[in-house]
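Duplicate of #3305? Posting structure anyway:
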Protein backbone atom coordinates (compact mmCIF):
# COMPACT_ATOMS: atom_id res chain seq x y z
CA UNK A 1 0.00 0.00 0.00
CA UNK A 2 1.65 3.30 -1.05
CA UNK A 3 2.16 6.01 1.54
CA UNK A 4 -0.45 8.69 0.90
CA UNK A 5 0.50 12.36 1.13
CA UNK A 6 -1.35 15.65 1.54
CA UNK A 7 0.16 17.12 -1.64
CA UNK A 8 0.63 15.25 -4.90
CA UNK A 9 2.22 16.85 -7.97
CA UNK A 10 1.38 15.32 -11.35
CA UNK A 11 3.37 16.21 -14.47
CA UNK A 12 4.51 14.44 -17.62
CA UNK A 13 8.10 14.16 -16.35
CA UNK A 14 9.52 13.54 -12.92
CA UNK A 15 11.69 16.37 -11.54
CA UNK A 16 14.75 14.12 -11.90
CA UNK A 17 16.73 12.35 -14.59
CA UNK A 18 19.02 9.34 -14.51
CA UNK A 19 22.78 9.85 -14.77
CA UNK A 20 25.64 7.39 -14.84
CA UNK A 21 29.08 8.11 -13.36
CA UNK A 22 31.89 5.61 -12.89
CA UNK A 23 29.54 2.83 -13.95
CA UNK A 24 26.97 3.71 -11.29
CA UNK A 25 23.48 5.02 -12.09
CA UNK A 26 21.80 7.62 -9.89
CA UNK A 27 19.14 10.32 -10.03
CA UNK A 28 19.71 14.08 -10.24
CA UNK A 29 17.34 17.06 -10.19
CA UNK A 30 16.55 18.07 -13.77
CA UNK A 31 16.92 21.51 -15.32
CA UNK A 32 13.86 23.12 -16.88
CA UNK A 33 11.13 25.64 -16.21
CA UNK A 34 8.62 23.40 -14.42
CA UNK A 35 11.17 21.86 -12.05
CA UNK A 36 12.88 25.17 -11.28
CA UNK A 37 9.50 26.76 -10.56
CA UNK A 38 8.13 24.02 -8.34
CA UNK A 39 11.10 22.79 -6.31
CA UNK A 40 11.40 26.00 -4.20
CA UNK A 41 7.66 25.89 -3.53
CA UNK A 42 7.88 22.27 -2.39
CA UNK A 43 11.07 22.60 -0.33
CA UNK A 44 9.21 22.71 2.99
CA UNK A 45 6.48 20.23 2.08
CA UNK A 46 6.24 16.47 2.27
CA UNK A 47 4.92 15.63 -1.17
CA UNK A 48 4.74 13.01 -3.88
CA UNK A 49 5.62 13.79 -7.51
CA UNK A 50 4.11 11.53 -10.16
CA UNK A 51 5.65 11.52 -13.63
CA UNK A 52 7.47 9.63 -16.37
CA UNK A 53 11.14 8.77 -15.84
CA UNK A 54 12.09 9.47 -19.47
CA UNK A 55 12.75 5.84 -20.44
CA UNK A 56 10.49 3.43 -22.30
CA UNK A 57 9.29 0.27 -20.62
CA UNK A 58 8.64 -0.76 -17.04
CA UNK A 59 8.66 2.07 -14.51
CA UNK A 60 11.36 2.15 -11.81
CA UNK A 61 10.33 1.64 -8.20
CA UNK A 62 9.30 4.80 -6.30
CA UNK A 63 12.21 6.59 -4.60
CA UNK A 64 12.96 9.70 -2.58
CA UNK A 65 15.27 12.58 -3.50
CA UNK A 66 15.58 15.95 -1.74
CA UNK A 67 12.34 15.62 0.27
CA UNK A 68 10.30 14.65 -2.81
CA UNK A 69 8.86 11.15 -3.09
CA UNK A 70 9.05 10.27 -6.80
CA UNK A 71 6.53 7.84 -8.30
CA UNK A 72 7.42 6.89 -11.89
CA UNK A 73 4.67 6.12 -14.40
CA UNK A 74 5.46 3.66 -17.18
CA UNK A 75 5.33 4.69 -20.85
CA UNK A 76 5.84 2.18 -23.65
CA UNK A 77 7.54 3.01 -26.94
CA UNK A 78 4.06 3.27 -28.50
CA UNK A 79 2.98 5.67 -25.73
CA UNK A 80 6.01 7.86 -26.36
CA UNK A 81 5.37 7.89 -30.10
CA UNK A 82 1.62 8.58 -29.91
CA UNK A 83 0.81 10.28 -26.60
CA UNK A 84 4.04 12.28 -26.19
CA UNK A 85 5.64 12.92 -29.58
CA UNK A 86 2.32 12.71 -31.40
CA UNK A 87 -0.67 14.26 -29.67
CA UNK A 88 1.18 16.31 -27.06
CA UNK A 89 3.95 17.71 -29.23
CA UNK A 90 2.65 17.60 -32.80
CA UNK A 91 -0.98 18.45 -32.08
CA UNK A 92 -1.21 20.47 -28.86
CA UNK A 93 2.19 22.17 -28.72
CA UNK A 94 2.01 23.91 -32.12
CA UNK A 95 -1.71 24.66 -31.76
CA UNK A 96 -1.24 26.29 -28.35
CA UNK A 97 1.69 28.33 -29.71
CA UNK A 98 -0.44 30.15 -32.27
CA UNK A 99 0.07 27.39 -34.87
CA UNK A 100 3.54 28.69 -35.78
CA UNK A 101 3.86 25.22 -37.27
CA UNK A 102 0.72 23.48 -38.59
CA UNK A 103 -0.78 21.19 -35.92
CA UNK A 104 -1.42 17.61 -36.99
CA UNK A 105 -4.75 16.01 -36.13
CA UNK A 106 -4.47 12.22 -36.17
CA UNK A 107 -7.12 10.03 -34.58
CA UNK A 108 -4.66 7.27 -33.75
CA UNK A 109 -2.83 9.67 -31.37
CA UNK A 110 -5.95 10.54 -29.38
CA UNK A 111 -6.67 7.15 -27.76
CA UNK A 112 -3.11 6.80 -26.35
CA UNK A 113 -3.42 10.33 -24.95
CA UNK A 114 -6.62 9.29 -23.13
CA UNK A 115 -5.09 6.05 -21.86
CA UNK A 116 -1.91 7.67 -20.55
CA UNK A 117 -3.93 10.41 -18.82
CA UNK A 118 -5.99 7.66 -17.18
CA UNK A 119 -2.77 6.01 -15.95
CA UNK A 120 -1.56 9.26 -14.38
CA UNK A 121 -4.96 9.89 -12.78
CA UNK A 122 -4.97 6.41 -11.25
CA UNK A 123 -1.49 6.96 -9.80
CA UNK A 124 -2.57 10.28 -8.29
CA UNK A 125 -5.68 8.68 -6.79
CA UNK A 126 -3.55 5.95 -5.22
CA UNK A 127 -1.07 8.34 -3.58
CA UNK A 128 -3.23 11.23 -2.32
CA UNK A 129 -4.53 11.32 1.24
CA UNK A 130 -8.25 11.62 1.82
CA UNK A 131 -9.10 15.31 1.48
CA UNK A 132 -5.64 15.98 0.11
CA UNK A 133 -4.48 18.22 -2.73
CA UNK A 134 -3.44 17.18 -6.23
CA UNK A 135 -1.76 19.74 -8.50
CA UNK A 136 -1.68 18.73 -12.17
CA UNK A 137 0.68 20.44 -14.60
CA UNK A 138 0.74 21.25 -18.27
CA UNK A 139 -0.71 20.31 -21.61
CA UNK A 140 0.17 16.61 -21.59
CA UNK A 141 -2.38 15.86 -18.84
CA UNK A 142 -5.48 17.93 -19.54
CA UNK A 143 -7.84 15.01 -19.00
CA UNK A 144 -6.50 14.09 -15.56
CA UNK A 145 -8.60 16.56 -13.46
CA UNK A 146 -11.95 15.15 -14.63
CA UNK A 147 -10.75 11.53 -14.39
CA UNK A 148 -9.43 12.14 -10.89
CA UNK A 149 -12.61 13.85 -9.74
CA UNK A 150 -14.63 10.84 -10.90
CA UNK A 151 -12.59 8.46 -8.73
CA UNK A 152 -11.67 10.77 -5.82
CA UNK A 153 -14.30 13.50 -5.32
CA UNK A 154 -12.84 14.15 -1.85
CA UNK A 155 -9.70 15.78 -3.32
CA UNK A 156 -8.91 19.41 -4.04
CA UNK A 157 -7.65 19.38 -7.62
CA UNK A 158 -5.63 22.15 -9.24
CA UNK A 159 -4.35 22.44 -12.79
CA UNK A 160 -1.75 24.85 -14.17
CA UNK A 161 -0.91 25.34 -17.85
CA UNK A 162 2.68 26.45 -18.36
CA UNK A 163 2.32 27.22 -22.06
CA UNK A 164 -0.07 29.70 -23.72
CA UNK A 165 -3.75 28.87 -24.11
CA UNK A 166 -4.82 29.72 -27.66
CA UNK A 167 -7.59 32.01 -28.85
CA UNK A 168 -10.97 30.56 -29.74
CA UNK A 169 -10.36 30.63 -33.50
CA UNK A 170 -7.39 28.27 -33.14
CA UNK A 171 -8.59 25.99 -30.33
CA UNK A 172 -11.90 25.44 -32.11
CA UNK A 173 -10.03 23.57 -34.88
CA UNK A 174 -9.24 20.75 -32.47
CA UNK A 175 -11.47 17.70 -33.09
CA UNK A 176 -11.23 16.77 -29.39
CA UNK A 177 -11.90 20.27 -28.01
CA UNK A 178 -14.92 19.16 -25.95
CA UNK A 179 -13.20 16.37 -23.99
CA UNK A 180 -10.13 18.54 -23.29
CA UNK A 181 -12.21 21.44 -21.97
CA UNK A 182 -14.32 19.06 -19.90
CA UNK A 183 -11.14 17.47 -18.54
CA UNK A 184 -9.91 20.81 -17.23
CA UNK A 185 -13.31 21.70 -15.78
CA UNK A 186 -12.85 18.78 -13.39
CA UNK A 187 -10.36 20.93 -11.47
CA UNK A 188 -11.25 23.29 -8.62
CA UNK A 189 -8.72 25.83 -9.89
CA UNK A 190 -7.40 26.15 -13.45
CA UNK A 191 -4.43 28.51 -13.69
CA UNK A 192 -2.87 30.23 -16.70
CA UNK A 193 0.19 32.39 -17.26
CA UNK A 194 -1.78 35.43 -18.43
CA UNK A 195 -5.24 36.92 -18.13
CA UNK A 196 -5.64 36.48 -21.87
CA UNK A 197 -5.19 32.73 -21.54
CA UNK A 198 -7.75 32.59 -18.73
CA UNK A 199 -10.24 34.60 -20.81
CA UNK A 200 -9.71 32.34 -23.82
CA UNK A 201 -10.38 29.23 -21.77
CA UNK A 202 -13.48 30.67 -20.08
CA UNK A 203 -14.99 31.71 -23.42
CA UNK A 204 -14.31 28.30 -24.98
CA UNK A 205 -15.62 26.39 -21.96
CA UNK A 206 -18.91 28.28 -22.22
CA UNK A 207 -19.11 27.78 -25.97
CA UNK A 208 -18.00 24.16 -26.34
CA UNK A 209 -18.30 22.47 -22.92
CA UNK A 210 -21.63 23.69 -21.58
CA UNK A 211 -20.11 25.76 -18.75
CA UNK A 212 -21.83 28.86 -17.44
CA UNK A 213 -20.50 31.89 -15.60
CA UNK A 214 -21.00 31.55 -11.85
CA UNK A 215 -19.45 34.73 -10.52
CA UNK A 216 -16.16 36.55 -11.03
CA UNK A 217 -13.66 34.10 -12.60
CA UNK A 218 -15.93 31.15 -11.79
CA UNK A 219 -17.35 28.58 -14.22
CA UNK A 220 -20.04 26.07 -13.36
CA UNK A 221 -20.38 22.74 -15.18
CA UNK A 222 -21.95 19.41 -14.14
CA UNK A 223 -22.69 20.67 -10.64
CA UNK A 224 -19.08 21.66 -10.03
CA UNK A 225 -17.50 25.14 -9.87
CA UNK A 226 -14.05 25.96 -11.24
CA UNK A 227 -11.99 29.08 -10.51
CA UNK A 228 -10.22 30.29 -13.69
CA UNK A 229 -7.40 32.76 -13.06
CA UNK A 230 -3.96 33.95 -14.15
CA UNK A 231 -1.04 33.00 -11.89
CA UNK A 232 2.14 34.18 -13.66
CA UNK A 233 4.93 31.73 -12.86
CA UNK A 234 8.30 33.02 -11.68
CA UNK A 235 11.71 32.03 -10.26
CA UNK A 236 13.49 31.81 -6.91
CA UNK A 237 15.01 35.31 -7.04
CA UNK A 238 17.14 34.88 -3.91
CA UNK A 239 18.73 31.73 -5.35
CA UNK A 240 19.74 33.36 -8.65
CA UNK A 241 20.94 36.53 -6.94
CA UNK A 242 23.10 34.52 -4.55
CA UNK A 243 24.71 32.73 -7.50
CA UNK A 244 25.29 36.04 -9.30
CA UNK A 245 27.11 37.47 -6.25
CA UNK A 246 29.58 34.59 -6.04
CA UNK A 247 33.11 35.87 -6.79
CA UNK A 248 34.03 32.66 -8.66
CA UNK A 249 31.10 33.07 -11.07
CA UNK A 250 31.87 36.75 -11.57
CA UNK A 251 35.43 35.75 -12.44
CA UNK A 252 34.09 33.06 -14.78
CA UNK A 253 32.00 35.71 -16.53
CA UNK A 254 35.11 37.85 -17.01
CA UNK A 255 36.98 34.86 -18.43
CA UNK A 256 34.09 34.08 -20.77
CA UNK A 257 34.26 37.53 -22.33
CA UNK A 258 38.01 37.20 -22.62
CA UNK A 259 37.77 33.81 -24.34
CA UNK A 260 35.51 35.20 -27.05
CA UNK A 261 37.74 38.15 -27.73
CA UNK A 262 36.72 40.76 -25.11
CA UNK A 263 33.99 42.30 -27.31
CA UNK A 264 32.83 45.84 -26.75
CA UNK A 265 29.26 44.57 -26.34
CA UNK A 266 28.04 41.00 -25.90
CA UNK A 267 24.55 39.72 -26.74
CA UNK A 268 23.25 36.41 -25.40
CA UNK A 269 20.44 34.05 -26.39
CA UNK A 270 19.46 31.08 -24.19
CA UNK A 271 16.72 28.80 -25.51
CA UNK A 272 15.60 25.26 -25.99
CA UNK A 273 16.07 24.44 -29.66
CA UNK A 274 12.38 24.82 -30.43
CA UNK A 275 10.68 26.44 -33.41
CA UNK A 276 8.57 28.62 -31.09
CA UNK A 277 11.67 30.36 -29.66
CA UNK A 278 12.51 32.48 -32.72
CA UNK A 279 16.22 31.58 -32.73
CA UNK A 280 16.39 31.66 -36.54
CA UNK A 281 14.71 35.09 -36.68
CA UNK A 282 17.12 36.41 -34.03
CA UNK A 283 20.10 35.22 -36.04
CA UNK A 284 18.77 36.79 -39.24
CA UNK A 285 18.26 40.09 -37.40
CA UNK A 286 21.80 39.99 -36.02
CA UNK A 287 23.16 39.26 -39.48
CA UNK A 288 21.24 42.21 -40.90
CA UNK A 289 22.51 44.43 -38.09
CA UNK A 290 26.09 43.59 -39.06
CA UNK A 291 25.34 44.02 -42.76
CA UNK A 292 23.77 47.47 -42.29
CA UNK A 293 26.60 48.97 -40.27
CA UNK A 294 29.50 46.61 -39.85
CA UNK A 295 31.81 49.41 -38.76
CA UNK A 296 29.55 50.44 -35.90
CA UNK A 297 29.07 46.90 -34.58
CA UNK A 298 32.37 45.33 -35.63
CA UNK A 299 33.26 44.61 -32.02
CA UNK A 300 29.89 43.14 -30.93
CA UNK A 301 29.31 39.42 -30.59
CA UNK A 302 26.40 37.07 -30.03
CA UNK A 303 26.54 33.89 -27.95
CA UNK A 304 23.63 31.56 -28.71
CA UNK A 305 22.98 28.60 -26.43
CA UNK A 306 20.52 26.14 -27.99
CA UNK A 307 19.57 23.36 -25.58
CA UNK A 308 18.72 20.09 -27.42
CA UNK A 309 15.00 19.31 -27.41
CA UNK A 310 12.76 16.58 -28.88
CA UNK A 311 15.43 15.56 -31.33
CA UNK A 312 13.38 12.61 -32.60
CA UNK A 313 10.70 14.98 -33.91
CA UNK A 314 11.31 15.92 -37.55
CA UNK A 315 10.54 19.64 -37.17
CA UNK A 316 13.19 19.98 -34.47
CA UNK A 317 15.87 18.26 -36.55
CA UNK A 318 15.04 20.60 -39.44
CA UNK A 319 15.27 23.64 -37.14
CA UNK A 320 18.72 22.59 -35.94
CA UNK A 321 19.91 22.41 -39.55
CA UNK A 322 18.48 25.86 -40.29
CA UNK A 323 20.03 27.44 -37.19
CA UNK A 324 23.44 25.95 -37.80
CA UNK A 325 23.39 27.05 -41.44
CA UNK A 326 22.53 30.61 -40.36
CA UNK A 327 25.38 30.61 -37.84
CA UNK A 328 27.78 29.41 -40.51
CA UNK A 329 26.57 31.99 -43.02
CA UNK A 330 26.90 34.93 -40.60
CA UNK A 331 30.34 33.83 -39.48
CA UNK A 332 31.40 33.27 -43.09
CA UNK A 333 30.26 36.75 -44.09
CA UNK A 334 31.53 38.73 -41.10
CA UNK A 335 34.23 36.78 -39.26
CA UNK A 336 37.56 38.43 -38.87
CA UNK A 337 40.43 35.97 -38.62
CA UNK A 338 39.95 33.94 -35.44
CA UNK A 339 37.07 36.10 -34.22
CA UNK A 340 33.59 34.91 -35.30
CA UNK A 341 30.66 37.21 -34.50
CA UNK A 342 28.41 34.28 -33.44
CA UNK A 343 29.44 31.66 -30.87
CA UNK A 344 26.97 28.77 -30.97
CA UNK A 345 26.60 25.98 -28.41
CA UNK A 346 24.18 23.07 -28.92
CA UNK A 347 24.04 21.64 -25.41
CA UNK A 348 22.65 22.26 -21.95
CA UNK A 349 24.66 24.02 -19.26
CA UNK A 350 24.53 23.80 -15.46
CA UNK A 351 23.07 26.75 -13.58
CA UNK A 352 26.51 28.09 -12.62
CA UNK A 353 27.56 28.33 -16.27
CA UNK A 354 24.29 30.02 -17.17
CA UNK A 355 24.84 32.60 -14.43
CA UNK A 356 28.33 33.32 -15.78
CA UNK A 357 26.73 33.90 -19.19
CA UNK A 358 24.06 36.17 -17.73
CA UNK A 359 26.74 38.20 -15.93
CA UNK A 360 28.92 38.43 -19.03
CA UNK A 361 26.17 39.56 -21.39
CA UNK A 362 25.38 43.23 -21.90
CA UNK A 363 22.14 42.31 -23.69
CA UNK A 364 19.86 39.28 -23.37
CA UNK A 365 17.77 38.67 -26.50
CA UNK A 366 14.51 36.77 -25.89
CA UNK A 367 12.47 36.56 -29.10
CA UNK A 368 9.92 33.71 -28.99
CA UNK A 369 7.11 33.79 -31.50
CA UNK A 370 4.93 32.65 -28.58
CA UNK A 371 5.82 31.65 -25.04
CA UNK A 372 3.83 30.97 -21.89
CA UNK A 373 6.18 32.97 -19.65
CA UNK A 374 9.92 32.63 -20.42
CA UNK A 375 11.88 32.18 -17.22
CA UNK A 376 15.22 32.86 -18.94
CA UNK A 377 14.26 36.54 -19.06
CA UNK A 378 13.56 36.48 -15.32
CA UNK A 379 16.81 34.64 -14.54
CA UNK A 380 18.80 37.30 -16.41
CA UNK A 381 17.10 40.12 -14.52
CA UNK A 382 17.70 38.37 -11.18
CA UNK A 383 21.40 38.01 -12.00
CA UNK A 384 21.94 41.69 -12.90
CA UNK A 385 22.81 42.59 -9.31
CA UNK A 386 24.63 45.77 -10.45
CA UNK A 387 21.42 47.04 -12.07
CA UNK A 388 22.92 47.10 -15.57
CA UNK A 389 22.24 45.10 -18.72
CA UNK A 390 19.44 45.35 -21.28
CA UNK A 391 16.59 42.89 -21.88
CA UNK A 392 15.19 42.66 -25.42
CA UNK A 393 11.91 40.80 -25.02
CA UNK A 394 9.27 39.49 -27.40
CA UNK A 395 5.86 40.99 -26.74
CA UNK A 396 4.43 37.48 -27.28
CA UNK A 397 5.85 36.11 -24.02
CA UNK A 398 4.02 36.02 -20.72
CA UNK A 399 6.96 37.91 -19.21
CA UNK A 400 6.22 40.91 -21.44
CA UNK A 401 2.96 41.45 -19.51
CA UNK A 402 5.04 42.10 -16.38
CA UNK A 403 8.26 43.58 -17.76
CA UNK A 404 7.22 46.95 -19.13
CA UNK A 405 10.78 48.27 -18.79
CA UNK A 406 12.22 45.77 -21.27
CA UNK A 407 12.77 46.71 -24.90
CA UNK A 408 9.69 44.87 -26.18
CA UNK A 409 9.73 43.74 -29.81
CA UNK A 410 7.56 42.02 -32.37
CA UNK A 411 9.79 39.08 -33.40
CA UNK A 412 7.99 38.83 -36.75
CA UNK A 413 9.24 42.32 -37.62
CA UNK A 414 12.86 41.86 -38.68
CA UNK A 415 13.41 45.59 -39.23
CA UNK A 416 11.99 46.40 -35.81
CA UNK A 417 14.14 43.71 -34.21
CA UNK A 418 17.28 45.04 -35.91
CA UNK A 419 16.48 48.52 -34.60
CA UNK A 420 15.89 47.14 -31.09
CA UNK A 421 19.24 45.32 -31.12
CA UNK A 422 20.97 48.49 -32.27
CA UNK A 423 19.24 50.50 -29.53
CA UNK A 424 20.15 47.91 -26.88
CA UNK A 425 23.81 47.89 -27.92
CA UNK A 426 24.03 51.68 -27.86
CA UNK A 427 21.83 52.38 -24.81
CA UNK A 428 23.35 54.86 -22.33
CA UNK A 429 24.26 53.28 -19.00
CA UNK A 430 21.92 55.58 -17.07
CA UNK A 431 18.90 54.46 -19.12
CA UNK A 432 19.90 50.80 -18.90
CA UNK A 433 20.16 51.05 -15.11
CA UNK A 434 16.84 52.86 -14.79
CA UNK A 435 15.13 50.13 -16.80
CA UNK A 436 16.88 47.27 -14.99
CA UNK A 437 16.04 48.64 -11.55
CA UNK A 438 12.37 48.70 -12.52
CA UNK A 439 12.57 45.14 -13.89
CA UNK A 440 14.22 43.93 -10.70
CA UNK A 441 11.59 45.55 -8.48
CA UNK A 442 8.84 43.87 -10.49
CA UNK A 443 10.57 40.50 -10.36
CA UNK A 444 11.18 40.63 -6.63
CA UNK A 445 7.53 41.50 -5.99
CA UNK A 446 6.41 38.51 -8.07
CA UNK A 447 8.79 35.66 -7.26
CA UNK A 448 8.13 31.93 -7.39
CA UNK A 449 7.13 31.74 -3.73
CA UNK A 450 4.32 34.20 -4.33
CA UNK A 451 3.21 32.17 -7.37
CA UNK A 452 3.07 28.92 -5.45
CA UNK A 453 1.50 30.48 -2.36
CA UNK A 454 -1.26 32.25 -4.31
CA UNK A 455 -2.14 29.16 -6.34
CA UNK A 456 -2.24 26.82 -3.34
CA UNK A 457 -4.21 29.36 -1.28
CA UNK A 458 -6.77 29.65 -4.07
CA UNK A 459 -6.97 25.86 -4.21
CA UNK A 460 -7.49 25.58 -0.45
CA UNK A 461 -10.22 28.24 -0.34
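Output from current build:
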Amino acid sequence: MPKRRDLVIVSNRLPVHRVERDGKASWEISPGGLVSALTPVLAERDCTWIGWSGDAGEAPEPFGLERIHNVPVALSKDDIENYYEGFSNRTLWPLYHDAVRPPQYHRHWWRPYVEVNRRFAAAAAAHAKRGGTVWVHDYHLQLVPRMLRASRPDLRIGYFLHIPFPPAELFAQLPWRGPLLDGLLGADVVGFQTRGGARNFAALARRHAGASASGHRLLAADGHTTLVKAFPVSIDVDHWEALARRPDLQERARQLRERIGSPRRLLLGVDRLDYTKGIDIRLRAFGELLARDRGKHRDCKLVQLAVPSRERVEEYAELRTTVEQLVGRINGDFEELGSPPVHYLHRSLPAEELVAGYLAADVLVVTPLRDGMNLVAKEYVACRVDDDGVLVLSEFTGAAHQFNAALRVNPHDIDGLVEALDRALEMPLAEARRRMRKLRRTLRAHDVHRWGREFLEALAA
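Confirmed duplicate; merging threads. Residues 16 and 30 are 5 Å apart (CA to CA). The chain is about 45% helix and 20% strand.
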